Amino acid sequence: MANAGMDPETFGQFIDQLQRYVRERLIPAEDQVIADDMIPADLVDEMRAMGLFGLTMPEEYGGSGMNIPQYTETVRVLSYAMPAYRSMASINLGMVCSALKNSGTEEQKTEWLPRLAAGEIACFGLTEPGSGSDSAAMATTAKRAGNGYVLNGSKRYITNAPHAKLGLIMARTHDAALPKNAHISAFLVDMDTAGITIGKADRKMGQSGSHIADIYLDDVKIPGSALLGAEEGRGFATAMQSLDNGRLSVAAASCGYARRMLDTAVRYANERKAFGEPIAQFQLIQAMLADSEAEIYAAECMLRDASAKANCGTAIIECASAKMFASEMCGRVADRCVQIHGGAGYLAEYEAERFFRDARIYRIYEGTTQIMQLVIAKQMLRNFAAGIIA
Ligand code: COS
Q: Does ligand 1 lie within 6 Å of residue 72's CB atom?
């Protein structure tokens, strides 16, 4: 059944407030974020005070109770600003909240959802040095010890690892691979537990102010109550279900940031003159603007449709399609934005250059475009075999 979410009028007011906040506070602070490679602490506090970390948590756990379409619309609006802001809140709002809501026990929800809603940061530990796209091949182990488990292994490219208080960590509870990847379980790990160390934040191509790092797990003793859903073998399904949600967030981020790029390109095309008139008057520039507008619109429509379907149940094809199309679209718009800026587009003092670098990861994380193709095709073939016709 569809989740009704937040009352539409309150949601509309929230979006108006967020749009103003993005333009009046977040965008003006971008240069500072780039210079420090860090969102200023007072801005993070403001984001907490606005409830931005708890939008998707149910109200009874201290959140705002947004449903999936409201959550993705919020991410889209937030993503008009540089990606670091979404990055800080998105693991709370998307993957970890979704895993807790869908699979957590009542005790786990009661313990963690209010903390996340209040702004404690979460991270999602799936990828490892030896397993990215092939996530079921992970090497991190969770061995039973008394009433609890001992974790050993490492996780790589983990967004927010340096800030996280909660890690949703996937680990093998069986040495051998099991059907449906049931050798993997998910654990809610307090990141202050002894034996956890965080690597140095990695230097990246773009996305200043957002941090990824390795997590090292060395004989980390966790209680049995940390097993998500109190059930072994559900970790892969939980991770995939959470990734459906995370993929919608990347689709929304791609739509929001592409809109920013296009607005910037339109402004520049009106200001910059060549052959005696603004370059916006030239049809070949207009073609790039028009293609970008139409593609952003298409991605926004997909995002809304996929979000509505995911709000009613599983929507694997739609989530993967929206992520694939929107992230690829964002890359094309970023490229055109540089092209419209001409030589200036290659210079760091213009925004187009960093838009281009920032956008590149959208086609990679939460599942590459190539993995999205596999996910979509696999589901299509399953539907065909089951006689399901669209
Ligand atoms: N929702 C709920 N359960 C799901 C699911 C989803 N979207 N996808 C898979 N599952 C569960 C199901 O139980 C499924 O079995 P059934 O389909 O028979 O019910 C089981 O997991 C196994 O799924 P599948 O057969 O699709 O697993 P594969 O090993 O074939 O999956 C891919 C392969 C490549 C699709 C998968 O490993 C993947 O998506 N990898 C990319 C991971 C990724 O995005 N990494 C990026 C970084 S993470 S931040």
A: no
Mutating to test ligand 1, I would choose from 87, 127, 168, 181 the residue with most ligand atoms within 8 A of its C-beta, which is 181
∠ CA(88), CA(68), CA(294), 5° rounding?
85
> Looking at ligand 1, which atom is closest to the CA of residue 244?
7
- Fold of the 237-385 domain: Butyryl-CoA Dehydrogenase, subunit A; domain 3 (1.20.140)
Residue nearest to atom 13 of ligand 1 (CA): 237
Rounded Cα–Cα distance for residues 169 and 242 (Å): 13
Task: Check pocket membership of 322 for ligand 1, CB cut-off 6 A.
Answer: no
**Ligand 1 atom closest to residue 378's alpha carbon, by position in its atom list:** 26
CA gap 266, 289 in Å, rounded: 7
Residue of the CA atom closest to atom 49 of ligand 1: 366
User: What residue owns the CA closest to ligand 1's atom 25?
Assistant: 180
Where does the pLDDT of residue 182 fall: very low under 50, low under 70, confident under 90, or very high at 90 and above?
A: very high
- Supply the residue whose CA is at minimum distance from atom 26 of ligand 1: 375
| The one-letter amino acid at 45 | D
Q: Could you tell me the CATH superfamily of domain 123-232?
A: Butyryl-CoA Dehydrogenase, subunit A, domain 2 (2.40.110.10)
**Residues 160 and 44 sit within 8 Å (Cβ to Cβ):** no
Span from the CA of 375 to the centroid of ligand 1 (angstroms): 8
The CATH topology of domain 8-120 is Butyryl-Coa Dehydrogenase, subunit A; domain 1 (1.10.540)
The rounded mean pLDDT for the chain is: 96
* Residues catalogued as catalytic: 366
Chain centre to alpha carbon of residue 33: 19
Q: What's the pLDDT tens digit per position in 227-272?
A: 999 999 999 999 999 999 999 999 999 999 999 999 999 999 999 9
* pLDDT at residue 390 greater than cutoff 80: no
- Please provide the DSSP assignment of 143-208 as one string: EEETTEEEEEEEEEEEETTTT-SEEEEEEESSSS--GGGTTEEEEEEETTSTTEEE-PPPP-SS-T
Q: In angstroms, what is the span from residue 99 Cα to ligand 1's centroid?
A: 14
Cα–Cα distance, 320 to 299 (Å, whole number) = 12
Whole-angstrom distance, CA of residue 55 vs CA of residue 6? 9
Q: Is the CB of 366 inside a 6 Å radius of any atom of ligand 1?
A: yes
